[in-house]
């Protein structure tokens, strides 16, 4: 594991030097400004009545983690479904960036220990231990502790009634599937398992950025209505899996289906101690697989997952379960590109008792 980390440092350190050097080059980056997102270079934006939602609130510029390479930033469009963008690493800090954005984190526990499993964590450690004369590392964008981003939009809420909401987060280098790291997400201090679940299914190997789009459950809408939303992301094992966020975008009362409704769970049956899960084929273009999760609790707490990569499949068997237990089951589809997964909504829950 450590060997792989060092290889990653060697591969991309030069890219970081080139990115720093390119700051002095003539500016050729195309200006991006659209009705749904505003000025992409702006650090904070709120827009009422876009074609996507009654209100859009964004914290963090849309710049692929302070990218300076003209070709990369000009091609960068994180809102294209299933897209993922490689970028230079590491990058320099920008004091004007809102807290939590465009900075590398390793989580609260790893900030206090020496564990390193990836290159981000290796450079974080070098930054943490560098003396004040080390201009290269001290200029880097690193922050101790948990990542925390706050959106303020209380004044804009005076003009609308909150009914529903969607989050779009530009995530970077989350590798829970690769390193067995585990991320915990909170919204206004409340555990947001619906977000943790998505992030812990990512495998963004390499310095890459992509967007996850997540519908906020109704029980969390009360926090959206407050006009101030604080999202905290922390790695809980302390193993040293570095991560970052480019921006956070909140859509209040989205006008379109931002998140796919997914697939229909047709039936769950118990046959000879085995769960047989039947579901409809996804109608979403680009679907690359299905996730089936099951739990002995109706809340789906502690659920385990089975991934099905055969997109023509409409049935799956789950083995090694406990007789006499009632199991609750859901299914959803996903689109995967280079390790980043974009999930649909979960289906309804069905249950069956194993004999």
Q: Care to describe what's here?
A:
The protein is of the alpha+beta class and 355 residues long. The chain is built from seven helices and 20 strands. It has helices spanning 2-21, 70-75, 119-129, 135-138, 176-179, 193-199, 221-224; strands at residues 33-34, 38-39, 44-48, 53-59, 85-86, 147-152, 165-172, 183-187, 190-191, 208-215, 228-235, 244-254, 265-271, 274-279, 289-295, 304-308, 315-318, 326-337, 340-343, 350-353. Helix 1 packs across helix 3 (119-129). The protein is globular. It starts with a helix and ends with a strand.
State the share of residues found in helices, binned by percent: 10-25%
Number of helices: 7
Distance between the termini: 43 Å
Oligomer designation: single chain
Query: Within the largest sheet, what's the order of strands?
Result: 3-4-12-7-10-5
Number of strands: 20
Given the C-alpha coordinates, what overall shape results? globular
Q: What fraction of the residues are assigned to beta strands by DSSP?
A: 25-35%
- The string of secondary-structure elements, in order, is HEEEEHEHHEEHEEHEHEEEEEEEEEE
Structural category: alpha+beta
- Determine Rg (CA atoms, Å): 21 Å
Contiguous low-pLDDT stretches (5 residues minimum) are 1-14, 16-26
Main pleated-sheet profile: 6 strands, antiparallel
Quick synopsis:
With 355 residues, the chain is an alpha+beta fold. Helices cover 16% and strands 32% of the residues.
